[in-house]
Here is the input.
Amino acid sequence: MNGRCVRELVRKEFLQLFRDRRNRPLLIVAPLLQLILFGYVVTTDVRETRLAVVDESRTPLSRSLIEAFAASPAFRLQASAADARSLEEDLLQRRVDLGIHIASDFAVRLTARRPAEVQLLFDGSLSHLTSQRAAAAQAVIEDWNRRLLSLGSEPRSPAGGGIEGRIRTWYNPNLESRPYFVPGIVAFLVMLLSLLFTSLAIVREKEAGTMEQLIVTPLRPVEFLLGKTIPFFLVAQGQMVLVIGFARAWFEVPLAGSAVFLFAASGLFLVCTLGVGLWISTVSRTQQQAVLTTFLFLVPFFLLSGFVFPIERMPLLVRAAARLNPLAHFLVIVRGVFLKGVGPTVLWPSCLALAGIGAIVFGAALLKFRKRPG
Amino acid sequence: MRARCIRAVARKEMIHLLRDPRSLALAFLIPLLLVLLFGYALSLDVEELAAAVVDRDCSPESRDLIRRIDASRAFAVRAELETDTALSRAIDAGRVSVGWVVPAGWGAALRAGRPAPLQVLIDGSDPNTGSQARAFAAALIERLNAERRGGRHAGVPPAVEARIRIWFNENLESRTFIVPGILAVILMIAGALLASTAIAREAESGTLETLRMLPLTAGELTAGKALPYVAVAWIDVLAAAVLAWGVFGIAPRAGIAGFLLASFLYILVAVGTGLLLSALAGSQLVATQLAILATYLPSLLLSDFVFPRQNMPSALQALSALVPATYFIDLLNGFYLRGIPASGLWPSFLVLFGMAVALAAGCVWAVRREGF
Here is the structure.
């Protein structure tokens, strides 16, 4: 291994990367733009459920129930529909997510101390949100019931008995989306950029015909691959610092654990992604091929990482495949450090897995790479 | 516009595509992989969540409670632990997501009609799983209480009873909306990403000069370049739709013709976007980066696909109105879930048509700028 050779190649790659004026904004603006986009959009909170009401009762009681819904942050009163038909039309046209139908005998039955029914029609298109919305609606109604009972002369009957659920939520007590998703976005973005840039690094030389010139230099294959990788490693680590800093400043996502450990782990992760990128680059002939192959890896990496879809709910075979996914391991680390504040004592299995995958992938790229024309 | 010229350019581009069988195979493989993954493996719904119990009571009531937790659709009891520390370690390591702690004397308190507190610990780091788990745990406790009340003395019935009905996706399976919705993402990958290198490649390798020598107009070059990519994306749509129907039984409830027309318009938009970026970018690296930024991520995130539009800040809502996938998702939702005919969805059709026309004009303008 000749240190000077590697250094010269690194210098050339840096020059090439920054010489193209159009590359520069991509390196800095693209990750930040995507972070903002993801950060605002990726949420599974139940907020602003659009609500339409048909109130055939038109009494103070029915209006107070509607107000209870309007006051809840989970719902936003969109419109009052004239009748049941127009309510169904609203749902069909996706103007509302929930329709409430209060029958004309609502107040009569309540004052007679008989149970009154309220119909809730949900648009079930987004199933994961619908079950939460249904629970939120139930909670609003139960709350309203309790208030109604305590307002009347009758106290809550044989109070006390029964199971009392004391439900506590750990790590993310308000169940907010951002502290969970933003750290994940950081990991995903760094992978996207490092994979794409390295996968194009060698193919570009092949397509432009400059590969021949590099072949006649006294560079050995290891030196060549190192020289091609080190610049992207440094750029990706820089992007990591940038994106994490931005995530903390803009989205105010707390970092519970150690930043030093996080960067060390991200170094291991980058060895994996850069290895995959190099491997793609050595087996591709054109940039179009390289981009598509990158996508073939990127899509399952993203989907089978637990970023949005939890791994433990996948079938056994797919779960086994997810074990080979470097992003899945890195997400465990990133979320562990950001949310739970745990360190190497808990996260060492994931670090070990990353090191193993990185060694295998890099070795494969090295074996595959031959200094030969064409 | 001469058909012969368009055919010639299309043939040349097709040869490029066919000479690179791997790119072509990938253009078909990635979509099928996505449909299969979403159909089989990926779900946002909470089912059989790993739970652990700490039973310090060991009374008939507590054993019954644990059986009930295990029998519910939402939870599966994976472990019985002795101590709270063991439980918190299991949650820390992510082995279980929910912990139920039954304190000593719980069953006796329940029998005596005294309040019987029960602790439930939920790993909330994933807010989607966490909040669904919380809702299911509360519902389970509520149900047990209602049964006990009903068994002994019918207390005051609740004043208002909610009658909940779910439309369009009656079994609440995320697969029902994700499998058709993924078409919007697939077509953007197949159309825009593939086409994004089409003109930039010629510019990079200098063959754009050669093309300039030919008696081609800008319109003919654009149409000829677009045709093969439209064909590839078209095969992708059919393959994905047939797969979704054949393997998962997910098919449009209405309007096959409308679905095909919508897909065709959307393909034109996708390929048009790719070509426009390709003509403007100059290099393949920049073109593909821009294509990912401008098409793949917005179709996934800003299109009302998994993340509802009304949750976004207003600036992003405005941006989402510019994303073609928003309208295609609306159409897909109409055909696949709500089952309404094409005539009921004309506004989205109109927008997609307008976008296709505007992009075609944009492509011709950009190609003309290159000297055609």
